[in-house]
Amino acid sequence: MSQAHFIKAQVVGRQVSHRSAFVENVVALIVVSLALAVLMCLAAVAPAVWTFATAAVAETHIPVGLSQCLSVKSDPGRLACYDELAARPAKGAGAPSETFGEAQRGR
Q1: Ranges of each domain in the chain
Q2: Sequence-ordered list of residues with C-beta below 8 angstroms from that of 95, at least 6 positions apart, any chain
């Protein structure tokens, strides 16, 4: 008896099952779906975490000028310090007009 007839004789009595391939595909689909769900949850939570983390850092960071004004004990002196800070232009506030030649037009 040849080997092909021997294998056929063993298989004839049983049904050939493709269940193992199906189960493997379903398990793989479930694993991929769970991984995508975890990534989506992380993507949804990350902006909130970033916002709260930067807000906490912003609350603890006081610019040098404000910290100097906070140390002034008298109310009028502290107000004068804040007024002086408010009157100063911010860093780089004059840069765009000078860059685009607007400062030369006014002359």
Answers
A1: 18-48, 56-89
A2: none
